[in-house]
Amino acid sequence: NTSDYQKTLSEYLASEWKSKLGLDSQLESTDYPKLMQKRHQGQFQIARNGWTADYNDAISMLGIVRCGDAENVSGGCNQTAEDLIERANLPPDPEQRSALLTEANRLIMQDYTIIPLLQYSDSRLVKPYVGGYGQNPLGRYRSKDIYIIR
User: Fold this and answer.
1) Helix-strand-coil percent breakdown of the chain, rounded to 5?
2) Distance between alpha carbon 116 and the CA centroid of its chain, in Å?
3) How far is residue 118's CA from residue 130's CA, in Å, rounded to a whole number?
4) pTM
5) CB of 66 closer than 8 Å to CB of 82
6) How far apart are CA 136 and CA 61, in angstroms?
7) Rounded Cα gap, residues 63 and 52, in angstroms
8) Residues with Cβ < 8 Å from 30, sequence gap 6 or more?
9) What does the alpha-carbon distance between residue 43 and residue 117 come to, in Å, rounded to a whole number?
10) Mean pLDDT for each 10-residue chunk of the chain (150 residues)?
């Protein structure tokens, strides 16, 4: 989209492709609705996408690479990985489910239809007298769980 952050990131990537791979690129900045339309219609050679987990489970990140999923704008499809994901959605034990999803993810990453470039992060300073503010992999905290230590 057209934010300064996206512009800076795009320019950095283009300069890296040029210096490291000898690739010339032409950047196109467009508003978000038009970007989404072009991505879903496959009108791109390369496009940036952002995704965050909706809940603390590996399956929340796999929609963007599942065969036929509306969020899979790359169009990539690894049927072996898809079969593993389907098996993981059956009620196996948690360790077996994790192993199936890990293997599916490994197979998908070998295809390189998407390339994870960065991980969003937030920094928070919490005073030592604040309780109930523990680690949360999704970065979501409920104020009802937070209290002042007296």
Assistant:
1) 45, 5, 55
2) 7
3) 30
4) 0.71
5) yes
6) 17
7) 11
8) 1, 2, 38
9) 21
10) 86 95 92 88 85 84 89 90 94 89 94 81 88 82 90
